[in-house]
Design goal:
The chain is an alpha+beta fold. It is built from four helices and five strands. The protein has a five-stranded mixed β-sheet with strand order 1-2-5-3-4. The longest helix has 19 residues.
């Protein structure tokens, strides 16, 4: 099997995922998964599609992440991994979609409007 690649996005984070057959090693920006995401919750988020399909130790995954914060990056990586696994085996798509791993979360930060301190917050109103 050659390398299969996919892209995952979330908020401002972009993950380019490269999946090949191997021993289950996950490398993000040339660092190990537990080194890049010290939080076990975020490590769990990244591995969710693999554990759902029970293919944890079957593929080596290389991820290039940039933009966004750590939560967005972890969820972008999860979407990229799920898309790559579907490219490898299209029958897995239904199982991953049922868990919500195939859906690109469209929520992004709303822009700041002029004449306001933030997107929706207003300056204090003074009657007199």
């Amino acid at each position: 099997m050659e390398v299969v690649n996919a892209i995952g996005r979330r908020k401002a984070a972009i993950a380019r995922v490269f999946v090949s057959e191997g021993t289950g090693k996950i490398v993000i920006n040339k660092r190990e998964l537990d080194n890049y995401f010290p939080s076990t919750i975020l490590q769990y988020v990244v591995k969710q599609p693999l554990s759902k399909l029970a293919v944890d130790g079957k593929y080596d995954i290389k991820i290039n992440l940039n933009g966004g914060g750590y939560k967005g990056q972890a969820e972008a990586a999860r979407l990229g991994i799920a898309r790559a696994l579907v490219k490898i085996n299209p029958e897995d798509k239904a199982a991953l979609r049922a868990e919500g791993f195939m859906t690109r979360d469209p929520r992004v930060v709303e822009r700041k409007k002029p004449g306001q301190p933030k997107a929706r917050k207003r300056f204090q109103f003074s009657k007199r």
